[in-house]
């Protein structure tokens, strides 16, 4: 059985999001933006998993599209928290790189699924 790269990457990203969230809450005492970031960042993988069990092609495309939107939202929160000085450059750049990779993969999945 082939490894599902988007499942793996979105799961690993969710773990990194959780780790970052904990630091934001405990070290920076930031509770509002970090909660939005946590919700969006962990929901990417949930939607990918739901897409894998889709009832139809349209359902699959919809779930992957939602995962893509959540990834884009997550990137927004990362950039906002970086600009607000809640995230340092090293961590925010790492998060953005990982998020951009997921966005590229999801865009490709959505686009190729629509063309079939």
Question: What does this protein structure show overall?
Answer:
The structure is a single chain. With 116 residues, the protein is mainly α. The chain has one domain: de novo design (two linked rop proteins) (Up-down Bundle), CATH 1.20.1440.60. Helices cover 84% and strands 0% of the residues. It is built from four helices and no strands. Helix 1 packs antiparallel against helix 2 and helix 1 runs antiparallel to helix 4. The longest helix has 27 residues. It is elongated and about 45 Å long. It starts with a helix and ends with a helix. The model has no long low-confidence stretch (mean pLDDT 96).
Short description:
The protein has one domain: 23S rRNA-intervening sequence (de novo design (two linked rop proteins)), CATH 1.20.1440.60. Helices cover 84% and strands 0% of the residues.
Please write out the topology:
Blueprint: H1 5-27, H2 32-52, H3 57-83, H4 89-115
Helix pairs in contact: 1-2, 1-4, 2-3, 3-4
CATH level-4 homologous superfamily? 23S rRNA-intervening sequence
Q: Number of folding domains?
A: 1
On the 0 to 100 scale, the average pLDDT is 96
Number of helices: 4
Rounded to an integer, what's the Rg over CA atoms? Answer: 15 Å
Task: Determine the structural class based on helices, strands and strand pairing.
Answer: mainly alpha
Largest sheet: none
Features:
elongated, 4 helices, 84% helix, mainly alpha, de novo design (two linked rop proteins)
């Amino acid at each position: 059985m082939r490894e599902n790269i988007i499942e793996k990457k979105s799961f690993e990203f969710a773990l990194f999001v959780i780790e970052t969230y904990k630091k934001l809450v405990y070290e920076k005492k930031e509770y509002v933006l970090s909660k939005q970031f946590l919700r969006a960042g962990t929901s990417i993988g949930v939607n990918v998993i739901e897409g894998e069990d889709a009832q139809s092609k349209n359902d699959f495309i919809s779930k992957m599209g939602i995962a893509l939107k959540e990834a884009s939202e997550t990137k927004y929160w990362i950039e906002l928290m970086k600009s607000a000085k809640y995230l340092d450059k090293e961590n925010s750049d790492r998060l953005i790189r990982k998020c951009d990779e997921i966005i590229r993969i999801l865009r490709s999945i959505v686009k190729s699924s629509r063309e079939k």
